[in-house]
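Much of what follows relies on a compact textual record of a protein's fold. A complete example follows; check for yourself that the lines match position by position.
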Amino acid sequence: MNITDLFNVANLFVLPFWALMIFLPNWNVTRKVMESYLPFVVLAGAYSYLFVVSITPENAAALSNPQLADIAKFFGDETAAATGWIHFLVMDLFVGRWIYWEGQKTKIWTIHSLALCLFAGPMGVLSHIFTSWITKAFSKGSEGVKLEEKTAAN
């Protein structure tokens, strides 16, 4: 399998996991699938392979003392770019899985945060954090209203 094929397979590999978390979050199959670390093992294996084959003495030197121009040059190589992209796929999926489980645990709506995480990981994280804060603020406010109603009723 060449680098382009590995890149394409990795892109397709993550899509079912995202689809399950976004479109069928409460399905028992989704929960079972998302309990597994196997997707991360597969992707991290592909990443590790590409990382090893992309490292040259020049690349190692550039990565050991990162300068923007050297990193840009490093990612100009297709193998290095594929390595970096699979790094994004692994980490975004891992964070997406965390968002998914947080939503399952707290019953906070996560579809928007997961969709953002799929396309722009850090924005999905921010979205989930803000959604959590807002949800908690409103639930505390409604708890206060319920407490006042109980007190007034007595």
